[in-house]
Amino acid sequence: MTADHPDNLNEMLSVIADAMADGTPLSVSGCASKSDWGYAIADARPVSVDRWAGIIDYQPDELILTVRAGTPMTEINKTLANKNQMLGFEPPDPSVLFAKTDISNKGSIGGVLATNSSGSRRLTAGAARDFLLGFEAASGRGERFRSGGKVVKNVTGYDLSKLICGSFGTLAIMDELTLKTLPRPEDSKSVLIPAADLAAAVRHIAAILATPHEPSAAAILPSDIAALAGFGYGQMLAVIRFEGFAISVNDRVNAVLSLYPDGDSIDDAASQTLWQAIGNTALLADAAGDIWKLSCAPSAAPLVINALPDDWPLRYYADWAGGLLWLDVPTGDVTGTILRQALADHGGGFAQLIRDSGNTRSLVPPFQPLSSPQMALHKRIKAAFDPKGILNPGRMHHAI
Amino acid sequence: MQMPEPDAAIIARKRDIVAKLKTILPATSVVDSEEGCRAYDADGLSAYRQLPLVVVLPETVEQVAAIMRYCHGEGIKIVPRGSGTSLSGGALPLADAVLMAMGKFNRILDVDYDNRCVVAQPGVTNLAITHAVESEGFYYAPDPSSQIACSVGGNVAENSGGVHCLKYGLTTNNLLGIEMVTIEGEVLRLGGKHLDAGDYDLLGVMTGSEGLLGVVTEVTLRILQSPATRRALLVGFDDTAAAASAVGDIIAAGIIPAGMEMMDSLAINAAEDFVHAGYPRAAAALLIIELDGPEIEVDALIERVAALVNTAGASSIKISTSEDERMLFWAGRKSAFPAVGRISPDYLCMDGTIPRRALPDMMVRMASLSQTYGLRVANVFHAGDGNLHPLILFDANQPDELQRAEDFGADILRACVEMGGVLTGEHGVGVEKRDLMPIQFSEDDLKQQQRLKCAFDANHLLNPGKVFPELHRCAELGRLHVHHGKMPHPDLPRF
Asked: Which of A73, A313, B148, B212 has the lowest CB atom count within 10 Å?
């Protein structure tokens, strides 16, 4: 079906009213860069907010950016870079994992927030959800509503910004968004520290996070993945990034190297290239199997990895000091079950199927299954925003 | 302040309710005497007082769940309370409600340096988290000024901030997980030692929900390594607008100070009289700017900031050269409230936020309102993030002065919203700003928020009368309306 492209929120309210009247669900997208994530929406009318593009207000000295949800990330990044600012949560470029054409599609800001997509700096700066200050949206009731505000400090009313981030378009269609921006660091360098195994790498990073040297990101690359990234030392590497004013970055890098004499450092350009590969999951982009993302306690990462079957052709790496595992694992239904059991046995967290190379999502839920009281609450929240179930129904879970 | 009409039938059943609660809790953990309840009749917004029906002091999650299940089954309201330091009346009791005081949940359960977090019960104080981890160089970043007394469970309910939140965030940005009990008595765990939600971010929704959605029984907080160095500047300006633009210049230069506070002339002089911190008495505005981080960075940036404020027209600049001097710079700001208390019998502390560029207009507006109402106002202000704390001076013993002060405060908050800001930056809505909510939000906005409330608490049993000016029945909120002449399923009968 050809997608509807309403010009504004009022037209969208009309599309929603039609959908409510005839009971046809809507499949909502921005730039459609992440449409393969989650379930496809059955028998839906596609509707896009790609015409809702543009910067409404940008006040760099207040760290405030107001944009429309369909604004491409390329435009936002360019606007912020002109004032030496950035989005602190380092949104990944989805085109690396999900590209279907040669045309670069880095997604829209609405899509980044709807999927709560955050990159490597999430460890220290927060997730996408931490940077959305307020929004205007259309609910599945066909009503326009606002939440939050256009200032960085605000506790007036429920924080619906948190709820809307990561709800995959199942609650409301976002239009105007106000985000907190941050200054771009003047300099960035990374330290590479060889590690005997994953447990040792997690310990090195924990030790550095327990110093006042303020790393901004910390990843762990097993030797095969490190080689892909151009660091074929034949060893697993802990990669720790330091950002800020140049004088401070140099000082902190030197301090850390003095603690780890077998470590090495790389300069700004090499560091940026490496962290793009890490944050965009480029290091697994050629995966033959399915790509899964696991969020766990950092210290649980080695336990989770060790719990996986020895005969799997497993490739993986870790970000967020060990708390985020990216895995290339065999396609099929047993995989998700094993991953989720390994997580449950080691402190919990969640496992999401990000890229399905076969038919996995018809066999195992792509999003972490919910306990029954949690699912009941999710269904009531869905009904509070979208009582007829017309906004992206079933994108995350069949029941919402 | 009009609270919901107490349910006389519930009050009439007090004896039975107390007896039942004493089967769930030890008798000493159920306080039903007037004398005992008196200690709980208000929170930090002490202008409002109300005796609760009964106070319960549970100490296990099973007890909380059993109380919630019982109250839910019987239609009895519950008001949760942490340390009772809320400045907006969030823990104000209701005559027909059980007050659930969480003070016995006072243990730190797990200090986990490997994962940089602390698991604690909700009655632990904010400062106790830092005390538990400072030997290893860690601290808990959100630092509301009541941190010596306020509980971390209350911090979650109010999404508490502090002077360092421009750089380090509010509670919501430093909270990894909670255990909570729903009004039905269901125990839910949201988040944990991992990052982010794999489903709807209910942890984010609970944070700042002011006790209307559930009772928090455990928290997992992110701890950070303390910065190596902290230094501060004390900068005087002859002109508030110049001070405001200096703040913008610092941020535009890519510098995010750990704290950036502004005080006006009345606040400067009240603080100086009280603690003799060496504040410039003649200045129209004073900035306290604190930088933290690696020593070499702080030393370099402090010079850059000094140059920026100088260019912006500072009339005086002092840079701390010792930890004692830095603490002295802060001493005046930190005692601003008691200092103002010395020059006026009573004061009301307001909490709106504005875009910082609106500050000069706001100062003019406040001066004019001050004349209209015949009351003085002193200003302290989290300048980095635009959060105002005007202190309205009044004397409660004078007829009408409390009312005039409240009207003055409401006008300031109206002006905040008019200038593009919000009603509350960190104190919460509670009862204090409840009736002002329609200034910031449309009817549809508020109804959508209340539908979320209904998903958690369909019978409005948890902390009713707070946050929302009107209590709509959930069934009424769930009805669909006609849009553009279109009604979903027009063939169905309507009533």
From this structure: A313
